[in-house]
Structures are given as C-alpha cells and as structure tokens.
TrEMBL record:
Name by which UniProt lists this protein: 2OG-Fe(II) oxygenase
InterPro entries: Oxoglu/Fe-dep_dioxygenase_dom, Pro_4_hyd_alph, Pro_4_hyd_alph_FE2OG_OXY
GO MF entries: dioxygenase activity; iron ion binding; L-ascorbic acid binding; oxidoreductase activity, acting on paired donors, with incorporation or reduction of molecular oxygen
PROSITE patterns per record: FE2OG_OXY
Amino acid sequence: MARPARKQLAQLLDDTEPAGSYSAELLAPAHSLRIEVADLGPVPLPLRAPQARKLISVARPAMFGRGEETLSDSTVRDTWEITPDQLTLGGTDWSSILGEALDELRQKLGLPPAMSLRAEPHSLLVYGKGQFFLPHQDSEKDDAMLGTLVVSLPSAHTGGELVIHHGGDRRTHHASRTELSLVAFYADCRHEVTPVRSGYRVTLTFNLLAHGPPSTNGSGPVADLTRCLTEHFTTPATSQYESRPLDPPNRLVYLLDHDYTQRGLCWDRLKGPDRNRAALLRAAAEQAGCEAVLALADVQETWGAYPVGDAAWDDDHWYDEEDEEGEPDEDGGGTDADGDYELSELIDDDITLTWLTRPDGTQGDVISLHVPEYEVSATTPNAHLEPYEASYEGYMGNYGNTLDRWYHRGAVVLWPQQRDRAFAARAEARPRHALDELRALIEADDTTRAGAAAKSLAPFWRTAVAGDTETQADLLESALAVAAGLDSAATAAMLLAPFRLETLAPCHADGLAAAAHRHGDTWAQSLIAAWFGPERPGKTDWTCTLPELCRALRAAGAASAARALLDGAWSLVRADLHDGVELPRAEIRRPRLRKLGSPLTWLFQAVDDALRQIIQRTLRECGDNVLECLMPALRSPDAQRTAGFGVIARDCAERLAAIVARTPRDPDDWSITWSGCGCDLCDVLGAFLTSRSRRIHEWPLAKAGRRHVHTRIDTAALPVRHETRRQGRPYTLVLTKTSELFTREQDIQSTAQSDLTWLKSAWRTS
C-alpha cells in the first residue's frame, strides 16, 4: 500500500533539514569584557571569592516565572541576582567580539544568514556553595526573543554545570577558569543549574532577540511537496479507527520540532530546522493553492512501558491475587517524572490546536481544536522530543503499564483555498470568524451561498462551539443574527443547538425574537426544548436572568419563546424540588432546598398568571419539607414585591400552624413510621421500628444481612444506633432507638413556631 501523502511530505522535509543545533557554545578572552556594578565599581576577571561575596552584598534573591506569575522560592531557584540597571558592560573589544560570537552562534543554531541576533542584558547571577536552579524553561520576554545567552565568567569553582535538555538529548556545559564561556540555546529548551559544590559560579544572562526579513523562498523539493499537498487534499482519508474511507481531509497539520509562545510564534522567528521546513511548506502551499498559518499544539501520548530492567509483559507473566490485598507498591503508583522506561507500543495519542495565527501573521486566536491522526504530519516523532510532563502508571489489573507524555509543539496548518473547503477549515478552528463570514453574505443578500456555507458546518459545529469556551455569549449573539437571516429553518436550528442554555442572556432577546419571527413559534419552541434536553444545565443559577430576558422577549413580540423558556426552567426547578424534599437526611436536604429559594423567586417574577397558578398548585402538593425552600424565598429582599408570593405565604402559614398544633409524642411512645423494600429482613426491622415499647433489638445476622440493615437505617436517617457484637457465629446486630426521636420532633415544632411568628408579622398572615 502506498504511503499517505502526509507521510511522504514529512520524509521530504527530513531530507532538506539544514545543519543546526538547539544549543551552541564558544569561548572568548576574559580581558575583552569590562564589568562595572553600581556601588562596587569594576569587577576583575577571573573572579575571586572576595569579589563574589561583594557582588552578593548588592544582589537580591533571584525570582523565576511560572505562567503569568513571578515567584521567589529557594527550593526551586536558589541564587543571587543583580539587575541590568546596576550593570555597565564594556571593554575595547567587547562589542566586536560579542557581534562575531553571535554570528557564529547563529550559524551553529541553524539560523539563516539574513537573520541577526542581538543580546539584551537580563541579569548577573551569583551561585554560592549549594545553590542551584531546578529544571525549567525560560519565558519569552519580548516578541523577538528567540533564546537565551549565558556568559559564564571565569572563576575557580566546582559543580554549577549548565545542563540543557531537548528532544531526548542532554548536554552539560562547564564554565572555564580562565576564559568567558558563551552558551546560546533556544527558549523552549528545558535547562538547569546543578548545585555548586565549591567556590562561586557567576554568569551574565542575555535575552537573544532575532531580527531580519522573513524567509519566503526555501530551497528544496517544492514541486514534490506541492504534489504531496494536492494528493493529501484530494484523496479520501483513512483512519486507524474507521474501516470505511472518509472524505478528503480539510487540513494538514505539520508539527514543528520546537515549542513557541503566542508572542514568539512568527514566520521569521522560527527556530533551527523549523524555519527552513516552514518556508518550504509556504512555497509549496502557494503553488498548490493552499493557505498556510502557524499554530500551537498540545500533544498527549500514551505508551505501553515498563521500567528499565523489568521484563516486559508477556503471556507467561503472572501475579498473585493476594498481592492486591497487601501493601501498596513501593513506587506509589503514578509519578510526574518520566524516569527510565522502555517504550513498547503507542496506545493512544491526542493532538489539540490551542492557538492559531491569522493569515497575515499579525494576530492570533485562542482555540481548542482536536486534530485527527489522518490530518497530522511530523518529521520528528514526539517520542524523540523532550516532554514537558510525564506520568507512569503501573499495572492496574485490567491493563498494562502505561506512560503518559505531554508535549508543546509549534505547527504549520494548511488548507485548500477553495471557497467551501477553506471556509469549513477556518470555521472548525474559529467559529466566530465563520459566523462573521455568514453575516457578511447575508448582509450582501447572498442568502443562497450563506445557506450552503452554514449547512457545511453541521459535521463539526457542535464540537467547534463547545471548544470556543471564552466567547460563548458573543458567539451566540452572532449565531442568532445568522439564524435569523437563513432561509432554512433546519440549518438555523443546527447553528443554535450547541449553545448551552446558561449562555442565554437578556442581550440575546432581540436576536432570538428575530429568529423566531423568521422561522415560526413552533421552531423556537423546539429549539428551546432542545436546550433543555440531555445536556441541560446542572445548576439553576442562570435563572436570575429570566425576569429581564422574558420581559425583553415579550417586548420584541416573542411571547411564545418566553413561555417555552419559563416552562423549561420550571421543569428544572420542579425536578430539583421533588428530589430535595424526598431526601431523608436533613443536613443534605436543607442546603439543597435553601438554594432553590432564589430560582423560585426569579421564576415568579417572570411567569404569567397561568404558569404562576400551576407552580402554586405544585408547591401545595409537596410535603412539609418544602418549607425549607419556601421560607428562605419569603425572606428574600424581593419577596414582598413578587406577584404570587402572598399565596405562598398563606399556604406556609397553614402548614406551620398545623405542625405547631401537633400533639407531642407520649414519653413512652418509641414507634417509628417506616416502610422497607419488602424483603424478610425489612419486615423484621419494620416490626421493631413500629413497636411503641421496644427500644432495643438484638439480632444474630450474617454479614450480608447486617450490611442491608445498616444501609436501610442510614439511608432513611432513622434515629436508631446500630452496633455489631462480635461474639459467636453469626455476629449479633444490636439496634437501639435513640432519644433523637423526641428531640427531632421538638426541634421541628420549635422551628415552625418561630417561622409562623415571623410570617404573621412580615406578611400579615392570620
């Protein structure tokens, strides 16, 4: 079988890889550099211990970055830092020597001649005995930042090696005692400084900034790459998870070797071999009629693996089941360290694009787009790169040892410029831009094209909208405007179906009303019913918008849509209410019912008279536990101004009065009303519970029976203590009715009396 075009493309780019490395080192004469530090004066080289201690006297503990934060933690980074404003760097030959060194380092890093590097001072660092910096990755502090330059000053010390990791490789750089040591490396390389064992390690660090025109014409097999792109986008895809052929892919995602930040992702600042490969792909894309943009990708791989030295799993492997009942594994299960493991086979992988640049390369968008394996090409496999995180999971009984690895990689994303296919590819990555294009077509009165383009979104639209979590409200506003302009009611419903109900806000009322007017009340009711479907909201907090939203819908002439929303909202509140009042355990039931007080208030403020009466009737049919929802609602600041709450207040007053009027339990009445599941055990338990005089029941019972009785007592929150007397066979279950039977009823009546007194005062109920 012929290799897929995407794999041929990866091989072609491998053949064109230029010489280059992720790090490079040079030596320079120490006398060429003159350093002055504020308040200290010149720093003589080679550096001696007394001078190092003077540097520490004007330094501060070094900080480090983690995400958007700047932190200080000596367990992560233990060193002293002198900032650039305290430093003056010079020397008669320093500028020329640094310039020549940067040009040579550029060549060693595989960067093109048209690019120039500039070293921007960042800090002077002093490491004393025992000080270190754990493995980390430098943040890109400038849009033009490509990497880091470390200039080690000559000094007598041991330890303090600079260790750089990339692509599974590891390089250790030692400082010179007599010369300047210059080490340059890309910013995505993880690196560390090992603990200093003796003396002082002193370094100057610089941000490496890249400048130069973008490379537009790479030399190499552009014609062959063009052929691969054409073949990729015209050949039905084959997936390892699908037996039938699929449609031709809409995109190709070529993974680059290096990691980039959003700020640093730019065609003219790509690193090492990435630069030449991307240039070749752009040239081929132009000839193949494709658009090319840059992206950031998150990659996860799950491998079968086992620690080095252990035998791999085979058919002869066995284990003693008793081991599972014994002590935990010495390694404690999963780990965050990659460690030394032998990889066996790739079990699963997942690639998600998280950032996509605009075609002009000036801006980008946060996205979350899963990429299937048949759209991915890579010259360098993930396994040959350094993961930023790894986790090993030992044998779990139903699957073998696994090693999860996570990577950040840059990517070139390509798609055909044919109108329909380009629209679909862009839309899946950026739903907002797809809606903008559809609105433009509708405003140009080209509804036929708009309808066809919108219909093409159906295969992936739900996933695309779900991935665009940061702009859901704006996205819904645009989707409503497009839906109102489409001729097809089915396509309009498809566009709106993926949105979550809690996204709907008063600002969307006009758009929803316009769509309802275009496609009819029945269409709007069906759409809203779908929003209340299986993926309905898990919470009812969003109902706070209902009063204003429904008023706006009625004002826009969409009363039917408002009623559909209220019917759906009441169905959610009613279901939660019925579930809540049936809960026997008060410590669980009360907070749940109390939370429903506010949604119930918002509903009453939004409903019409007909639905209000339905809600009032339903509440009257609930048991007395519903008071735990209604009383907090009646105490809310808006309750007195909410139509229909007067009826609720009177109903609550009647309930409370009936509770207060109950005859207290006789002091010798120990009966408990309860019904079980109908089994023999529950019949025996029920006879004991309903007895007025029996307080204790001793019951020889096997383990399974005891467990069943325990469960029934605890589930119903009965005031019965259950203990097991472990003597004889079977053991004896001892059940004892507690005085909580009396205090619980007394507390209920006391609370009812307090609530009734407040109701009569606040609501003037009699």
